[in-house]
Write a structure and sequence with these properties.
By secondary structure, the chain is α+β, with helices and mostly antiparallel strands. It has eight helices and 26 strands. Strands 1, 2, 3, 4, 5, 6, 7, 8, 11, 12 and 26 form an eleven-stranded mixed sheet that branches. A five-stranded mixed β-barrel has the order 14-16-17-19-18. The longest helix has 15 residues. The relative contact order is 0.13. The structure holds zinc ion. The site of zinc ion has 8 residues, from loops.
Length: 441
């Protein structure tokens, strides 16, 4: 029989990682004699939920097993979740779901909503009861939502892969030892089939995280073969306890939903919305750039935050009248009355001419003329020519940006944001074949 195992919300800012529990389970479940029918799936959920611990990533494992093995599998899964979750963190509310059979369309629909919006725990519990699934919810049990969503998102549309390598316990919390030069070499050899390995602007390695979690590095790419081959080029200067290849919705823009009017924006929802720039962009304290965008239904402050670095320069070049498409999430910040749309991606749809008005040039000697007073016309200082009927002349300035798509630098991008390398590489089917080496041990 087919079994789908979903896990979510086991980590905390102090450590842990749901993908690591997934990697542990791969080893334990294989030892029980089960057969994997897909790579473990890593499903990034709505990054704008107010209660997320870190990247808001849930996982699922899809296996084939004899019916008599189900009880032992269930025990194994629940045991690993209980042992490896950080239950001391108030925001960590682990959940595990085990679902038998083919994934129902109702679950897939639920998963899409968990990625693009907010869903309630009650709905997840109703679905679990309806399908007779088993579930484990620790503390407030909210992790059950993501666990169920990770089962429901079967990644039949666009998807990518990530090779995740994990550290041995004694090294966790210390600086990661991965040879930077090898990462640049890997990037050069495999891009654009891999993405977000390095930040070319400041030559920074991006495959290693910085927190106390057990991940040593992660290589993202288009196929399992590519991420496996790329990971072989990376030189780890500390032992790798285990590694696994995940199939994932990272880098697919799966979280965005188009919204017709600015007046329809909803808090904590990832959206794509069009509007006109209403005011000159303003740089506020902390180096954040605020852009006021509106349409007939209303207006909203959009923010390019300081960590987006050079991306802010693009936003600052916009002027009133420009038409833009904003990709982002509407967030309420403390101390600010109106909600702000954080800009994850910007598409400049139409640039308006930038016009300045200057005093006319003297028709006799070519010097710039000066005004004689309000509505009094102009006078040339050099040759004395006077022109009562002369007016200021419009000058069309060159715009420093072009129409097109703009993204923050890779290190400021969300897990779900589709990077430039992926444009034109979107997949529309999932013919899964497990390569020989997709996990260790
Ligand atoms: Zn003159």
């Amino acid at each position: 029989m087919r079994l789908h195992i979903g896990l979510d919300d086991t980590d905390s800012p102090k450590g842990g990682c749901t993908t690591y529990i997934g990697a542990l389970l791969v080893q334990r479940l294989l030892a029980l004699g089960v057969e994997f029918i897909d790579y473990p799936n890593l499903i990034r959920l709505n990054p704008n939920v107010p209660w997320k611990t870190r990247g808001n990533g849930a996982i699922s494992l899809r296996i084939q097993c004899p019916p008599e093995a189900v009880d032992e599998i269930e025990e194994t899964v629940f045991e690993e979740v209980e042992e490896n979750s950080d239950l001391t963190c108030p925001n960590t509310n682990p959940g595990a779901v085990i679902y038998a059979g083919d994934v129902s369309p109702a679950l897939t629909e639920f998963a899409k909503r968990t990625i693009t919006s907010l869903v309630e725990l009650e709905e997840a519990i109703r679905l679990i009861k309806r399908f007779g699934a088993s579930a484990l919810g620790l503390k407030n049990g909210r992790g059950v939502i993501g666990a169920l969503a990770a089962i429901g998102e079967t990644l039949t549309g666009d998807h990518t892969y990530e090779f995740l390598a994990y550290r041995t316990p004694e090294n966790r919390g210390s600086k990661r030892r991965v040879e930077a030069e090898s990462v640049f070499k890997m990037d050069e050899a495999t891009t654009p089939s891999t993405f977000s390995n390095v930040d070319p602007q400041d030559r920074r390695v991006l495959i290693t995280p910085h927190g106390p979690d057990p991940i040593l590095f992660g290589v993202r790419g288009e196929t399992p073969e590519t991420v496996y081959a790329a990971a072989q080029v990376v030189v780890a200067e500390e032992p790798i306890e285990r590694w696994v290849i995940y199939r994932t919705n990272q880098g697919t823009d799966a979280h965005f939903t188009a919204v017709e009017r600015i007046g329809e924006l909803r808090l904590n929802h990832p959206v794509v919305v069009e509007g006109a720039v209403l005011e000159e962009p303003e740089t506020i304290k902390g180096g954040h750039v605020i852009l006021r965008v509106g349409d007939k239904s209303g207006s909203v402050d959009c923010a390019a935050y300081e960590p987006t670095k050079s991306f802010r320069k693009v936003v600052k070049e916009l002027i009133p009248g420009d038409l833009v498409k904003i990709y982002g999430g509407l967030k309420q910040h403390e101390g600010i009355r109106a909600a702000t749309l954080n800009i994850e991606k910007l598409e400049v749809l139409r640039l308006t001419p930038k016009v300045v008005y200057e005093n006319p040039l003297c028709p006799r000697c070519g010097s710039r003329m000066e005004a004689m007073g309000r509505e009094q016309g102009y006078r040339c200082r050099k040759c004395g020519l006077r022109g009562q009927e002369m007016r200021k002349q419009p000058i069309i300035l060159k715009r420093e940006i072009r129409e097109g798509v703009y993204l923050p630098p890779p290190r400021a991008q969300r897990h779900l944001t589709k990077p430039f390398q992926r444009y034109g590489r979107e997949k529309n089917s999932a013919e899964v074949h497990l390569i020989e080496r997709w996990h260790y041990p």
